[in-house]
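User: Predict the full complex structure for these chains.
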Amino acid sequence: MATSPETRVDSAIKPDHKALILVQDVHKYYELGETRVHALRGVSVEIAQGEFVAIMGASGGGKSTFMNILGCLDTPSAGRYLLENVEVSSLSKKELAAIRNRKIGFVFQGFNLLSRTTALENVELPTLYARVSKAEGGKRSREALALVGLGDRVEHFPSQLSGGQQQRVAIARALVNQPSILLSDEPTGNLDSRTSVEIMDILQKLNDEGLTIVLVTHELDIAQFAKRSIQFRDGRIRRDERIQNRPRASEVIQNLPKLED
Amino acid sequence: MDLLAIIRVAMRALGRNKMRSILTMLGIIIGVGAVIAMLGVGQGARQTVQEQIQAMGSNLLFVGAGTVTRSGMHMGWSSTKSLIYDDMLAIMRECPAAHAAAPGSSSSGQVVFGNDNWATRINGTEPQYFDIRTWPFKEGSSFTQNDVEMAANVAVIGETVRKNLFGATDPIGQTIRFNNLPFRVTGVLASKGTSAAMGDDQDDIILVPITTLQKKITGQNWLRWIMVSAVSRQASYAAQQQIAALLRDRHHIRPGEDDDFFVRNLADMADVADEAGRVMTLLLASIAAVSLVVGGIGIMNIMLVSVTERTREIGVRMAVGATERDVQQQFLMEAVVLSLFGGGIGIIFGLSASYLITQTLGWPVLVSPVVIVVAVLFSMAVGIFFGFYPARRAAQLDPIEALRYE
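Assistant: Here is the predicted structure of the two-chain assembly.
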C-alpha cells in the first residue's frame, strides 16, 4: 500500500456499491468577527452501505466539522451532501432533527448519558422523538441493550456502570431507531485500552451485520479495526485508503492482560 | 412527543431535584394560598355587610337633618334645626309610599346603676321604631305610646349596656340614672352586634321616649333623624322622592338651593358598603397577587438555572432527534407542572388558612368555586408566562455547542 501520494482515492470502493453518503465539494466556514475561519475546503467523499470508516487527523484538521455535517447537526456552507439520495444541505431544522432521529445514531466520547436516568430510559430517548408507542419503544430498547450485552443492566443508573458499560448503553441508544449509519466521535477516548478494544469488537460485529459505521479517532490502533481510513488535514482529505490486514477485535482481546472492572 | 410523554418527562426531570422543585413551588403555593384566603376574607366581609343591611330591612329610609352652610362654612352632619316632629307627621299623612315612621334624636352621657357606670349614647324615639328596624326584645318590652305622651322616665337598653351595668342581675324594673334622672328599665333589646357598615356597636345604646329626651335632657325640640319604612322594597325609591319633595316644600327651599336634610334608602347604603368591600377585596387580592408574581419569577429563575445545567442533556436530546419544539415543550411543561402543583397545594393552603381565620378570628370567610378555578388557571398562566423565556432559550441552543458544553 503506497503512502506517499497526496490525496488519493481508493478505486476499490467506488463502482458496484450504492452510495449511502455522497459528499461533493463541501466547504464550511465560520465568521468570527472580521475573520473567516475555513474549516472545510472542498471535501468530496462517497461512503457505501456496509462500510466501516475511520476518520483521522490532527485536531483542527476539519474532522469534527465533517462529522457534524455528516450527522446533520450542521449544514455545509457550500457543496452538496446526499444521505440515501436525499439532499440534506437544504433541509429545515425540523427535517434535520427527523433525519438525526431515524437515519443516524450518535456515539460520543463522553457517553453523554442522562444522569439519574436508568440505562433503559436512556436508550428509550430516541424512540420518544420517533413517536413510537411506549410499549414498542421499551421493547426495542431492551433488544438494543441485549445486543450490546447489557440485557441484565436495564435498570442501572449510569453512575452504577463502568465506562465501557456506559459506552455500550450509548451504542444501544444509537441503534434503537435502526439507523442507516452510526456516527461515533472518539468513542474510546475516555476508555482504557482493553475496554476500547471491547467497544471496537461490538462495532465490528455490528458492521458485520451490515451497519455502516463512521468513527473519528486519533489513535492508529483503534483506526485499524475499521475497513477504510480517511485522513483530514487543513480542511481537506489528505489520504483515503483501505485498511489492509485489519485485526479482529475479538482476537486482540485474548492477547490483552485481563482487568477487573 | 405526545402530551403524556411530555408530562412524564417533565415529572421525571422535576423528581430528580425534589428539594429544588418544592422550594420553587413554595412561591406559587404562598401566592395562590394568599390570594384565595384574602379573596375569601374580602368576600366574607362583603357578604356579612349585605346580610346586616338586609336584616335592617331593605325598605328602610333614613331621613337625616342636613348640613347647613353659614358664611361658606359647612357646619357638619345634622347641624340644622329644621327637621321637626311635624315633618314626620306630614310624611305619614302625605307620602303614600311611606308605611311607618319613627322620630329620633340623640345625646350621650354617663349612665349609672348602683356602683357601676357606663358611657353610652341615648336615643329618643317612639315604640314603632323597634318594629321599623325589626329589632326584637330579649327581655321585657318597649315603652308605650302613652309613655311618649307623658314624657315618662322609662328606658329600653341595649345588650352592651345591660352587660356592663347589670351583669347577672335582672334589669327589668330596675332604675338606672342618666344625667341624674332616674329611668325605669322596661326592656332589653336582642343583640345586633357590630354594624359592619358603620363599624360601631349597635348594642351600646339606651332608648327613651323622644319627648323625655327633648324635654328633660337636651332641651331641643328638633329631630336629628326620622326612620321611615316604605310600603315595600320597590316603593322605597318612590318614598325617597316623595319625602324629599315634601320636606323641600315644608322647609321653603327654593329650586336651586341645597336641601337642609338628606334622605337615604338602605339599598343605596348597601351599594356604598358593597363598593367599599369590593375595593378592600381587590386591594387585599392585589397584594396577595404580588407574591404570586414573585413566585413566578422564582420559577423563571430556576428554569434558567436548569437550562444552563442541562445544556448537555439538551444537546443529546437534539442529537437523537428532538426538534426545537420538542425541547421548548419539555421545559415549558416543567414550568407549568411546577406552577400547577404549586397552585394545587396553594388551594389547599388557602382553604386551610381561610378555615383558621374563621376559627380563630371569627371573621366570616367565603371561598367561591370561581376563585379556585381562577387560581388554577392563573397559576398555569404564571407557569407558561415565566417558563416561556427559559424554554425558548433551551430550544434555541445550537446542538453542537450544547454537546460540547462543560
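The interface with chain B takes residues 68, 71, 73-74, 93-94, 97-98, 100-102, 106, 108, 112, 114, 116-117, 121, 125-126, 128-131, 134, 173, 177 of chain A (CB under 8 Å).
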